Structure prediction request, 691 residues.
Amino acid sequence: MTNRLVEAKSLYLRKHAENPIDWWPWGDEALATAKEKNLPIFLSIGYSSCHWCTVMEGEAFSDLTIAEYMNANFLPIKVDREERPDIDSIYMQALQMMSGQGGWPLNVFLSPDDLVPFYAGTYFPLEPRYGRPGFLQVLQALRRYYDTEKDDLQQRKAAMVEALLTSAVLKDGTAADVAEHELLRKAWETCTAILTPNQSGNSFPMIPYGELVLRLNRFNFSPRYDGAQVVTQRGLDLALGGIYDHVGGGFHRYTVDPTWTVPHFEKMLYDNGQIVEYLANLWSVGVQEPAFERAIAKTVQWLKREMTAPEGYFYAAQDADSFSEPTAPEPEEGAFYVWSYSELSQILAHEELVELQKQFTVTPSGNFEGQNVLQRLQAGQLSESVEIILGKLFAERYGNTPESLDTFSPARDNQEAKTYDWPGRIPSVTDTKMIVAWNSLMISGLARAAIVFQQPSYLELAAKAANFILAHQFVDGRFHRLNYDKQPHISAQSEDYAFFIKALLDLHQAAVGMGDVASASLWSEKAIALQDEFNEFLWSVELGGYYNAAIDASQDLIVRERSYVDNATPSANGIAIANLVRLTLLTDNLHYLNLAEQGLKAFKSVMARAPQACPSLFTALDWYQNSTIIRSNTEQIKSLMPKYLPTVVFASVSNLPENTIGLVCQGLKCLAPAESVEQLWQQVQQSQSRG
Prediction:
């Protein structure tokens, strides 16, 4: 017996299609039914590769007693947060206001008349444990509260609405008096401290923080921190740690320890795109560590092999869990990736195992539930013999050698994973939907790496994905966020617009660097057209900045938010404001600069109050303060572009004044035409640090 979710396009929703709970997808029919029947809404939000979402689906959501009570007393709605980040953002903020922390699964109880939350939590166990009540107890208590405590319910909801509206408006404080340079210095110190290694907790990539510290290191703000060492260490932790898949390529989501050893094994496209760009930028600043180049190259191989659709776009994610054998009742976390010592002893000759142990963490007792997660012991170039050993492990996992396996088709669900005759291990399930925002982050990473490492194949991969989006993600002239099997779905949100415009601008710059004038012109034209649509439907005329969702796609939201907080991905407004400055440089259209100024003013209070929340806004401020355009010939651009010049846009021109090689313009003023390579470089360096 299946419920309504069996027809859903989302893999996450379909995973709940056989639950006895009478799930509804979010939509007008579900909301109207709840209101008509006066049923409090149980809203459950998650995503396909979320481990504890999977656990709750197999426990509480599969329990008949829970389902009987839920179906009689609530209207249960399932939302894929990757489809509707606007809904997720509002109710995640509500959870954080109620409890001081967040996470997924996000389970929220809403009043049906106004969709205001009155209680929220994350994972609820079937029976009381982990210091948490059993899920049935929670349901019974909340239904009783909803029926009998009307006055308290109304007071609670009124306080929540006021808090959400206050947060959305972001009233100016005393931030107007804070100088921009002081804001940048404070942000650099704050983010450098956050990135400094600690001895407790999980380890996340936190790339927006790394990118901000990397770009602001050029100002030498304070001797308190060694910013160069901090960003380099973050790169080493990523490229050498267990968070990186040293056998197959690609980065896992995070590690569950402070030593970067044991990952939470899902692989998200958005992490990999950001990390590729970050490692390429580290290389371009002069930290030319061979492990960085290897990590990028192997990640691109993983992307092409496992995460690229035949049409050219990139899949969203791979699960953390996989089946150890076809008869296993449940998938196990990390089963596709980890190695037992006895298994390694059988695959490798004794001398090979000894050599592997000299380079990686391999012991009889292991470092993860008796298994081994490979983590490199030192930086540098891996020897050819070690690469051969890793190739043997690759063949054991995938059933083929790295050289002969160009494409590894995805397992699209658990049934397919268990029943297909895989030549090696059973792989994790891949969520094959196309998300514009996440594809855009990968496109940007590939474009930057293509220039830094002079790899045209990286740029070809990026361009193919971008062309798919341009060809398939517009319906009746409007941009759309998702694609399921060649079908666009759901209106684009602010992060889709912002990240894709950035990707188009990055492709434009890469094409300029490669001397491809025609492609460069195409990418810039598409970026300008999409920016016009973004401005029309999502810009806040009253407040400044961009709303999360378009004006005609926000009817089901209790508040319209403007994303400014960086999480696993950068904030939409941080990226969008930087884009506006870049577009100003390319087009000389000062309307873009006016919008950028309004956007920064809109968020200045939160930038002054909580710099730890919004590093991408400070990246945008750096662009605004130090924007530079270099007009030169292709030869000079090719020599400059692989260097780390974080607020520079390049334009290829052929009509420079006689006896000059380039023209450097700082924002709205231009310097004297450069007559030598030395003079040009001096002007560029001065321009990058003038703020």
User: Anything to note?
Assistant: Residues 134 and 276 are 42 Å apart (CA to CA). The first strand starts at residue 24 and ends at 25.
